[in-house]
Structures are given as structure tokens and as C-alpha cells.
Amino acid sequence: MGSTTNIFLFACIFTFTLWNNIQLSVENEFTAHYSSNFSSLPELRVLNLSHNLIRELDFNVFKFNEKLECLDLSHNNLWNMCCQTLASLRHLDLSFNKFKTLPICQEFGNMLNLEYLGLSATMIRKSDFRGSSMKALILEHIRTKVFYFSQDILYKAFSDMNIENLTISDAYMPHMLCPSHTSLFQYLDFSYNALTDEVFKNCDTLIHLKMLILQRNQLENLSKVSSMTSKMKSLKHLEISRNLLYYDENENHCHWVETLAKLNLSSNKLTDSVFGCLPINAQILDLQNNQITTVPKDITELKALKELNIAFNRLTELPGCSHYRGLELLNIEENSILTPSSDFFHSCQNIRELRGGHNPFQCSCELRDFVNFEKKSGGRLVGWPESYVCEYPDGLKGTQLKDFQLSELSCNTTLLLVIALVVTVVVVAVTSFLCIYFDVMWYLKMMWQWTQTKSRVRKSHPEDLQSILHFHAFISYSERDSLWVKNHLIPNLEKEDGSVQICLHERNFIPGKSIVENIINCIEKSYKSIFVLSPNFVQSEWCHYELSFAHHKLFSESCNSLILILLEPIPQYLIPARYHKLKALMAKRTYLEWPKEKNKHGLFWANLKVAINTNLPVSTEMIVV
Ligand SMILES: *[C@@H]1O[C@H](CO)[C@@H](O)[C@H](O)[C@H]1NC(C)=O
Ligand SMILES: *[C@@H]1O[C@H](CO)[C@@H](O)[C@H](O)[C@H]1NC(C)=O
Ligand SMILES: *[C@@H]1O[C@H](CO)[C@@H](O)[C@H](O)[C@H]1NC(C)=O
Ligand SMILES: *[C@@H]1O[C@H](CO)[C@@H](O)[C@H](O)[C@H]1NC(C)=O
Ligand SMILES: *[C@@H]1O[C@H](CO)[C@@H](O)[C@H](O)[C@H]1NC(C)=O
What we know:
- Helix content is 25%, strand content 15%.
- With 625 residues, it is of the alpha/beta class.
- Among the domains are: 133 residues, Ribonuclease Inhibitor (Leucine-rich repeat, LRR (right-handed beta-alpha superhelix), Alpha-Beta Horseshoe), CATH 3.80.10.10; 146 residues, Rossmann fold (3-Layer(aba) Sandwich), CATH 3.40.50.10140.
- It is rod-shaped and about 170 Å long.
- The N and C termini lie far apart (146 Å).
- Bound molecules: 2-acetamido-2-deoxy-beta-D-glucopyranose (5 copies).
């Protein structure tokens, strides 16, 4: 092992904070000389003996002072130590004495309450730190004043230490050497120093290092830092927050060691490009307080990523999880996110916790789904509801998202369309139903035809309407009652001298014209319209139409031109509801009833003829074909 001859000057003041389990070995050789006795002061807690001329001290003098907490022996002439465990001691200052080597006692390791140990020496020997049992050394708040030697020697002494944990923190340390041979270091904390990108460059001896803390140093080039880790085969956790790190996306030179699982990059100068330089097996990434505006879409997949912190950046939208599907925790507090979409929760299936508060939320329809998601799933948003407050629009500023409400209808365009569609369909359906039920279309068509025919007739015979009357009567009947019409009605009306002319559709219809037109023609050219009513009639569509035409004429010319013959009684229920006109007519008007008894037939025909002849103003010569 290394010899004790490797001595170098260390003309500086050291302030050590000893960890409880430090154990140091030093060969002791002392002379006991009691210069004082404090046994009569069992309550003694603080003893300040600084700035005296004490040359030797045996700690045994304090063995009755069980409550002694603070012992200041600085600025004396002590040159040798007689060690003793003082269990209650918290503060022990031995600095500025005449010790040649560091006065380190093994007993210090047993002083479990010791928080402060002040030491100084004119020399440091490697053996000072040698021990079979020493595992960790912590040096904090070191203020070096004067160096009379090459710093490299000091760095070498530290870097070649055979211990597991080394902390040199807040020591203005500008550099540290790579251990010259395979090192035992597992944990290195060099935070609050002045280390640059050159630290541990091309270093391949730190193969057991698991955790490296370089918080608050002068690191700048992220790609260099990644290369630094490439040979640290066991490195799991790298803490490089609060440096000056940036990454230029054109570089594309990142070589992180594959074992790296936790990386703290917070408080640096990183931009969106940092996503092109991340360790692929990272599980925990801290990127808070940088200058990130978006998480680019084309980043390498980070399959293992569980925790991602992007708080205190400049994000404008919630990043999805397409590149890190296993994400469980995401922090995006204090960014510039206006309207986080609830799609986030669909792409981030494993998310357990989302910290999204303190963003300038814009309370609009787009935000509703996000709010509803929290209300439904509950508890995934950390800080809900007090950290989630509307910033825009001005009218809602300060309103908590949980109290922000917009009606389903004002936001959901699909619903709005569906409702409009349903209303339209209903209106169309109701209108159609009414049209069909009341035969509106048919009536319209009929009116139109009627008007057309009339105007045509007027044009051809403008001089006198009377001159177009060719017939005494038009007979409307159901085809099923045709036997009665042909065998009884017509022969009886037309017999004698042909003074009564009847318009019959088989006989007088003009071929080539539509049925409706023929019917209208027939009605137009006849004084009277005779309707042979029977259950058959009511069930015939055509008969009903004919009745409607005739009825229309009746009103338009306000003359009594309708004659109803009731061939067979018609029960009211047989008349379809939509034939309300027929119903009304039958209810109001008197009709001639066809008698069953033969002897009454004569009277019937007489009555009928009277009805036809009543208003017959012109003679037979007007009948022209
Ligand atoms: C110190 O005190 C102890 C115990 O009271 C006593 O035995 C010893 O003689 C004292 N020593 C001196 C130098 O007075
Ligand atoms: C002890 O006394 C000196 C001089 O009076 C003072 O500077 C020092 O701070 C004191 N030590 C403690 C621990 O209070
Ligand atoms: C070294 O540091 C690690 C991490 O802080 C700790 O868990 C471990 O107990 C330390 N080991 C020693 C020997 O102090
Ligand atoms: C960062 O380091 C890499 C690798 O050494 C180098 O190629 C690159 O130029 C450096 N970037 C800057 C901006 O200095
Ligand atoms: C990263 O470092 C900062 C301090 O610089 C600390 O507040 C934060 O908790 C660390 N992040 C993680 C994940 O440990």
C-alpha cells in the first residue's frame, strides 16, 4: 500500500463535518498532564479554552462532565492528542494549534452527536485518511486560503482514495482528476463547486460509481457531459441541476451510459432540443426551470420513463405520451398552457398523477372535457381545485376551474347538429303526416287542375259561361254500384224524349285527357252532380275526389248543384276519418233515399226529376256535342 512518505504541504484551514460513521485510525503516543480539573462542574455544557497556551491535553479530564456539548480548543499550542470518547460533544474545535499532522482520533467515530469538528494542520499525510474501516468522507464549506503546492497533488490524493462515498461540497473546487486505477467510489458529491465540462473526461476507472452529483457547477455542454458518463458502467443517478447546460440540436452527439435511470437537468438553459439528448433508459427526468416550449413529436422513445418534470418552462400545450407510454407522473405546473385537452388522459393511460396547476387557463369549451375528466376520474390532478384557476377571459379571471360551467349544448356542436336535425325531421314528419292525413297534396293538385281547366275554358269561351253547359247532370258512383246506375238510374232519367242529358264517364270522357281533367270537365259542363252514396262509394277514392270537385264548384258558384242519393245506408264508422267533407255533407244535407219497396220507386224518380229540373233555365237546343 501507499507509503506515508508521500507527504505534501497543505497550508490551509480545513473545516470538516464528520459523518457519524466515520472511523479513522491514528497511532497515538501521548503524555498525560492534568493542568486543570473540571470534575466539580458536572453541569458544564460550554467550555471555551481558545487563545491560551495549552500544550497538552488529556480528554480524560472531561470524563465527569457528561453534559459537555461545546469545547473550543482553537488557537493554543497543542501538538499531540490524547483521545477519549466524549459522547455528549456536538462541537469540537481543535484548529490553529501546533499539530504536525491532522489530529484525527478513532474515537471521533464514536461521538455520535458530533456535528462540528474544527481541524487544521501544517501537513496532510495520506495515512491520515487510511483505515481499514473508513468508507465515507464528507468535506463541506471548505475555504482554502493559500496554496503553496500544485493542486493536482491534492486532487490526486482525493481521487485515489479507496472509499465508497466522497463529498467535497461548496469548496470552490475547479477540477477533479480521474482516479488513476479502478476506483471504489460509488457515490460522489461535488456540488457547489466550479467544475467545468472537462471533469472526468474520458475517465474509465469510475466503473462502480452509482451516483454522481455535480449540482451547481459550471457545466455547459450537455453533449460533453453525456460522453463523460459513457464509461461509468454502473451509473444510475446523475444530478447536474443548476449548471449552465444547453444542447445544440445540430450536434447530435449524445452518449449517455445505458444504465442511467435518473437524470436531474433542472435549472439549466435547455430548450426543446434537449429531447434529442436524453438517456434512453431514463425512468425519472427532471427538466424543470429550463426554456422548453414544446415537447417535439419526433423524439426517441423513452420506454422506461415514469416521472417527467417540465414545470417552470414555456410549454403552451399539454404533451401527449406517445413517446413514453409508461409515464406515471407528469409535472407541468407554471407553464403557459391555456387549454389542456382531455386527449392527454387517453394517450397517457398509466398516468397516476398530473401536476398541472398555476397555468393561465383559458376557460372555454375546449377546457370543459379536461375539467369533466377530473370531476369524473377524480384525484389525478394534484393541487385540485385551488391551483387550477381561470386566467382568461377577463370576466372569469380568478374563478376556480371546478366552478366553471358551460352548458352541454353551447359547447357540443355535434349535439347541436343532432338536435337541429331531429327538430327538422320531426317538423317534416309532422307536416308530412298532416299532409297525408288531410290529403293536402291532393287538394292542392286538384285546386291547381281546377284553376287550369277553368282558365282554359274561359279563354276558349269568354263570352258566356252558360254556353258551355252541355249536360243536366253528372253522375258519380262506385264501380260496384254501376249495375244499379245502368239498369235503373240512367234508363229512368234519360228515357222519354232525351230531355235529360247525363254525363257518364264511360260515354263522355275525352280520351287523351287525364282522368282528373275529364272529371272536372264533366262537372263543369253539367248543371247538377248526382252522387250515388253507398258503402261502396265511401270506399272508393275516385268517388271521393269527384265529390270534392263538385263541392268545390258548389261553393265557387254558390248554387245548389249537388244531389245526393243514398243507395244503401252508410254507417258513420265506415266513412274514413279523412273524408270529413263527405261527413259534413251527409250530416247537413238532405238526400234522396233509394227505397227498398218497389211501390215507392215511382215517387223516388219523380222526386229526382224535380231536383234535376228545378233550376233548368235553358231548353234542349243548348245541348251540343
Ligand atoms: C481531579 O479530581 C479527581 C476527582 O475528584 C481527583 O481524584 C483528582 O485528584 C483531581 N486532580 C487534581 C489535579 O486536582
Ligand atoms: C471562544 O472564544 C473566542 C474568543 O473569545 C471566540 O472567538 C470563539 O467564537 C468562542 N468559541 C465559541 C465556540 O463560542
Ligand atoms: C454512501 O452514500 C449513499 C447515498 O447517499 C448512502 O446510501 C450510503 O449509505 C453511503 N455509504 C456510506 C458508507 O456512507
Ligand atoms: C459540445 O461538445 C461537443 C463534443 O465535444 C462538440 O462537438 C460541440 O461543438 C460542443 N458544442 C459547443 C457549442 O461548443
Ligand atoms: C433536481 O434538483 C433540484 C435542485 O436543483 C431539486 O429541487 C429536485 O427535487 C431534483 N429533482 C429530482 C427528481 O430529484
